[in-house]
Amino acid sequence: MLIVEDNADLRTYIGEILQPNYRLIEAADGVDGYFQAREKVPDLIISDVMMPQMDGFQLCAKLKTDEITSHIPVILLTARATKASKLEGLETGADDYLIKPFDAAELQVRIKNLIAQRRQLRARFSQKLLVEPHEIAVTSADERFLQRALNLIEENMAAPEFNAEEFSRRIGLSRPQLHRKLDALTGQSTTEFIRAIRLKRAASLIKQGYGNISEIAFEVGFNHLSYFTECFRKEFGVNPKDYV
Length: 244
Description:
This protein is of the alpha/beta class. Helix content is 57%, strand content 8%. It folds into 2 domains: 2-123, Rossmann fold, CATH 3.40.50; 131-242, Homeodomain-like (Arc Repressor Mutant, subunit A). Strands 2-1-3-4-5 form a 5-stranded parallel β-sheet, sandwiched between helices. Strand 4 (74-78), helix 4 (83-91) and strand 5 form a beta-alpha-beta unit.
């Protein structure tokens, strides 16, 4: 969890509230907060609104339009309790808004609710990946990212050398950034994500009667039939030849 707060005392107070349950990263202003968010890709961000260099509204807007960080829930903290200020925060894409001084228990509950919402969203994305990639609707920044990721895998489906390292290079993220993004959205590592898409394509080809099992294995990027069979059985519970 990333805490972005220019007031050192308040930053320490928030840290003391959260320390027992979360691993914490701290930033003293919005600029450093944005850098830390892109570098570490935390599960949730708590940010003050009034800060030097880059305020919380600007930070939130940048985070929500950046492919690396668009999925991260953001809670904005502010002393301004006006409706206009709250609307401004929500319009930047903030997921929640808390007025100072806030109750520690309320902050904990709001964090738990946002984490639960992200888990539900991850389950929804994972369910969508059960269908063919081209059937996924593109309606949000996260879904657009997934679509781009799926397109890259489809373009390199038959290439065994298309691995996690090549995937991260082609999509323009570091390997840790890509891993954190995919784990947040799908619950899978980069390698698991690539393998799952290949296996789902293989299952589709088997149902279509595309060819024999060896041909299908090579078509989806597996060099060794035995490894393909092992992975397929783990994914679907049956051997490829028994799948239909």
